[in-house]
């Protein structure tokens, strides 16, 4: 953190009248703010950030002297070392800007295995925060559990399925697996079949009763959903561009299917559903041979669905959540339960950085029995390459709170934006700001988008988003259909 970085940050807040996911302004004219543990916790639990004391966010982010730089520094240090767990080691920099004395405090992200940082006075469940846009939000029970299970090295795919028995596994597949694994790994041949299955994470018998593990059930089960009913894929075709659109016959969905089975079976059945429900282009080769080519690359979709099945969170915390595959007129979305695992980051997806994996046993069993993970660590690169070959936009990856989302579009967002701008110009005499046009673009692409997501994408505060939405409603450009929580945005003609 340098003086220039701090001054640039102040100028940014004053220009855009907003904080960010890594930048917080606080006044300290009359003393140390009573509440700043939430921001420190939030920065430590996310990607770090800078708090600038002496900036009034409620008055155009103007500068105000802090009451006493030295005393403020001591109080923040005491807060970080005695009231937060684990202890935080902040970095300080006193700055004079426009004649005002300010104090910048940099909070670094904690190592993943030390998270979450929480305020000890209220405990881990109520005192853990995470930065969302310009807001410090309480971490959910799932977010806390996800961090703790990573620290503790819990392998959820090895937990036994309590009601299930060994007979619930496909015995023909088990026999074939044992035969092949003994050939491939001769050292296992000296053990009994039961021990081989236990060593490879397919069964568990710590209570004296043989039970299939979750991994064993999802790879070899006769009918996994008999014991794990929510571990399925909900596939739907929406007659429009947003959930809630109604078709010509009044239908909410043009097609929908609950896809069940093992991971391999669900992958193949969901791909069949996609093939059935997306248009195809007719290609005639030089020899006059006709070929129907789907408008989306099936290789890319296969990788995305396989990733959702393999990398979803299988913990009891998400057992009630299913994978969702949605086909809209303009895109396909695949959503699976679970945060990005461990140290994984969106910016590292598809790069040479090795990613940590959540379900090691499932991955190994699929490697030994199927071709589903033959492109391991190259799946995202494959998705991008396949979309590029068809001159389609890159797939979009979003790490939402407790959900990972992949979107494939059949039209470049820039084209959508140009159409929106043209409609604005053609239909209205009002001038539209850059942010209003960008907001319209995002609403067009995703009418169900939340204000928090809009804040993140435009890098402005939620207060600014609320103002922009109000302006657009006043200009007659948008309307809200349904409730704030379950409704969607409609762009008017």
Q: Give the beta-strand count.
A: 22
Which CATH architecture of the largest domain?
2-Layer Sandwich
Radius of gyration: 26 Å
Main sheet specs: 6 strands, mixed
Could you name the CATH topology of the largest domain?
Heat Shock Protein 90
Low-confidence stretches: 414-418, 424-429
Description:
It is built from 16 helices and 22 strands. Helix 15 crosses helix 16 (462-474). A hairpin with a 3-residue loop joins strand 17 (323-327) and strand 18. The longest helix is centred in the first third of the chain and has 15 residues, at 69-83. The model is unreliable at 414-418 and 424-429 (pLDDT under 50). The two termini are 48 Å apart. With 493 residues, it is of the alpha+beta class. The protein has helices at residues 3-16, 37-45, 69-83, 123-127, 141-152, 171-184, 193-199, 214-220, 263-277, 298-311, 360-369, 379-389, 413-427, 434-445, 451-458, 462-474, and strands at residues 23-26, 49-53, 55-56, 62-63, 84-85, 91-97, 100-107, 118-119, 129-132, 135-138, 203-204, 211-212, 233-237, 255-259, 280-284, 290-294, 323-327, 331-337, 396-400, 403-409, 478-481, 488-491.
Core attributes:
Arc Repressor Mutant, subunit A, Heat Shock Protein 90, 6-stranded mixed sheet, globular, 4-stranded mixed sheet, 22 strands, 16 helices, 493 residues, Methyltransferase, Cobalt-precorrin-4 Transmethylase, Domain 2, 37% helix, alpha+beta, 3 domains
Summarize the structure.
With 493 residues, the protein is an alpha+beta fold.
List the helices and strands and how they pair.
Layout: H1 3-16, E1 23-26, H2 37-45, E2 49-53, E3 55-56, E4 62-63, H3 69-83, E5 84-85, E6 91-97, E7 100-107, E8 118-119, H4 123-127, E9 129-132, E10 135-138, H5 141-152, H6 171-184, H7 193-199, E11 203-204, E12 211-212, H8 214-220, E13 233-237, E14 255-259, H9 263-277, E15 280-284, E16 290-294, H10 298-311, E17 323-327, E18 331-337, H11 360-369, H12 379-389, E19 396-400, E20 403-409, H13 413-427, H14 434-445, H15 451-458, H16 462-474, E21 478-481, E22 488-491
Parallel strand pairs: 1-2, 13-17
Antiparallel strand pairs: 2-7, 3-4, 5-8, 6-7, 9-10, 11-12, 13-14, 15-16, 17-18, 18-20, 19-20, 21-22
Helix pairs in contact: 8-11, 9-10, 10-12, 13-14, 15-16
